[in-house]
Amino acid sequence: MATKIAVAQFCAGQSVATNLATCIGLMSQACKESAKMIFLPEASDFIGNPSEEAMTLSHPVIGTDTGPFLTGLCAQAKQLGIWCSVGIHEKSPRSGKLYNTHVLINHRGDIVEAYRKIHLFDVNIANGPILMESNNTVPGTQLVAPVPTPAGRVGLGICYDLRFPEMALALRKQGVEVLTFPSAFTIKTGEAHWEVLLRSRAIETQSYVVAAAQAGKHSEKRASYGHAMIVDPWGKILAECDGHSEGIAVASVDLASLTRIRAEMPVLDHRRYDIFP
């Protein structure tokens, strides 16, 4: 049986309240489209804030003080009866640094899993961005096991993690059926690599890949590529947003089709772990 899901994109700014209102609206759109699960971008809570302000705006994921952004999303998920995947900033034990965290919320409004980004985006691209995520972010130290959801077993990644196939393959060996990478890809890297990376991860793991995206100009110095996308296990793009508009794209996850593809071409069984451990 196929399950409808929605992938979202928007242009987050510095206001948590404004971004929350946008996300709540996107969740409502997804519900109207009969989606059972919505995927929101990386850093949906805020983008572009000064470091000191970012620290005060961030909250823990576990405990009673999860802050207004997560509290609002959990309430909306419960009201609509929809699952939600979202990227946020999370308070860490390290002074002056945060986690880049991917949170999964169920249809009852409960936070069921949180993954902290393990690959940090420290790059200096010629004629492109200079970004040092490690200046204000603590890297995570572990994968989290795929989570059962209405769309299948979902494996959590974030943005730059998309470039590391060993991570996707590790989740595949743990039984993943849907890989998801909430992102804020730069324009330059998005134009060059976004689609090919998403389709590659889908093909090599024979999994659905869902990538929500930040889209548009956040500030004078920061812009995101957009093109939120859902890709099937054969590498076909099922749904895609454009490069700048706020909105959702909807498609169905068909686990019977996934099972057939994996049976017809059992690449996981053919891997030579004796040669490539």
UniProtKB/TrEMBL annotation:
Residues 3-255 form the CN hydrolase domain. GO terms for molecular function: hydrolase activity, acting on carbon-nitrogen (but not peptide) bonds, in linear amides. It holds the Pfam family CN_hydrolase. It comes from the Eukaryota. InterPro entries: C-N_Hydrolase (IPR003010), C-N_Hydrolase_sf (IPR036526), Nit1/2_C-N_Hydrolase (IPR045254), UPF0012_CS (IPR001110). Keywords: Hydrolase. The keyword Hydrolase applies. PANTHER family: DEAMINATED GLUTATHIONE AMIDASE, NITRILASE-RELATED. This is Carbon-nitrogen hydrolase.
